[in-house]
Amino acid sequence: MNTQNEQSHPYLGMWVTKDGYIRHELLPNGRYDEARGKRKSAYQGRYTIVGDHIEYMDDTGFTADGDFRDSVLYHAGMVLYYEK
């Protein structure tokens, strides 16, 4: 994502598992904040989106990726839905 598109990218915002246990907030500055259960900010790092593919790198260096399909984020065996 480049700076011009950061503020309006359609994938920005909160993505949650059906049970609400895992929550990924994709921030407009290219960072994300992941909460797990009652543990807020369990993981933080940066992300890049190219097309419908997302690459994550947390602040410890761990990497993961995912894909957006039909308004659903498929990431590391998880299914996350956009929270409006």
Automatic annotation (TrEMBL):
InterPro entries: Atu4866-like_sf, Uncharacterised_Atu4866. It comes from the Bacteria. Pfam families: Atu4866. This is Protein Atu4866. It comes from Paenibacillus borealis.
